Amino acid sequence: MSYSVDRLVITPHDVDLSRSPLAGHLDAETYVLGAFNPGLTRLANGNLLAMVRVAEALRQPIRDGHVHAIRWEGGEGKGRYVLDPWPLEHAETADPRKFLLRGGGWRIMALTSLSWLLPVELTPDGLEIVKTHYDRAIAPAYDFQCYGVEDARISRVGDRYLMTTCSVSPERHSTTLYSSPDGLDWTFEAIVLDHQNKDMLIFEGLIGDQYWAQTRPLGDLYFAYPPGSEWRAGPSINLAHSPDALFWKPWHKPGIRPHAATVATARMGGGAPPILTDDGWLTLWHGVEPKEIVGIYRTYWSVLDRDDPSIVVRTEHQPLLEAAPELTRPLEDLMYVRDVVFTTGIADGGDHYIVASGEADLACRITHVPKTRFAQQ
Fold first, then answer.
1. Domain 5-374 maps to which CATH number in 3.30.365.10, 1.10.10.60, 3.30.420.10, 2.115.10.20?
2. How far apart are CA 371 and CA 286, in angstroms?
3. Keyword Cytoplasm: yes or no (predicted)?
4. pLDDT of 287-339, one tens digit each?
5. DSSP annotation of 327
6. Quick one: which of 240, 268, 275 has its CA closest to 155?
7. Are 108 and 100 in contact (CB under 8 A)?
8. What is the DSSP string of 167-213?
9. What pTM does this model have?
């Protein structure tokens, strides 16, 4: 499907690394590997706020027989960035985003970049940059974030903005919560989900008197559905609820599960925070079809029952968004992965939704999707 607006609005060229939280810390040149996966919300002044993940990487990670990772270290609230060298003979470097370390009884990896979050204010339609708020960037501040802060998702619930992020460290791969009264000034609240429970999306509104969220726990073991089932075993989008958005209890019913009829959901997870429509909660999520190292990421949609979001009212197997090579062609010299669109935000635009995605783990893509696209056929 073609859309009235579908373009890149923020690219690595729009990030000034002289104003990065890492500036002046490392005796090595860095560059913007990607400016992507933006959380999205509307501010009180009508503008949109994109919370962009900036993956800052070493220009030469491999030197002197070692591959290097950037790590934050220090006391709570202050610290410095350092480089950790790993002998090449112990590392697998086929994936440009990370390297695996051999020798353990399980998969151990380190990243080729460190991510921090950059608030970028956009025009109400999401198509032009108004101001880049470097002074409000969110960077590692605790030891459980020593390898970076990734993939913000922003929900407005009542008069509060709530933002979930993924914090990365050897301690845990956790979901962390920030809150804000205005969408610009953020306060760290807590770790709210523990190890490898990613893609937490808080519903934009209460159900009863409870906050609700989609979650996606990861693991290396899944039990089989019976032969002939319509579902495929593997990662799925689960549900949780909370009285205060801090302490979460998993819901006993399944959420959105991978379907056996398509390999496009062999792996799946949440995308944009669910928003309430006349038909129920509209949720955009990602499905991954296996291909080479990274896979093919596409965006899909479902409408969930307004009172019981474990009930899928409407969905379809056809993707809403796919990777758009024509958009990234001017950035061909920066490309390092392909076949990836990763939706992370949505805002109301009147007769359409403004959908924010990461394109190719490289840039921020804005697509205007007519509301009729989700209507009952």
1. 2.115.10.20
2. 19
3. no
4. 999 999 899 999 999 999 999 999 999 999 999 999 999 999 999 999 999 99
5. H
6. 275
7. yes
8. EE-SS-EEEEEEEESSSSS-EEEEEEE-TTEEEEEE-SS-BTTBEEE
9. 0.96
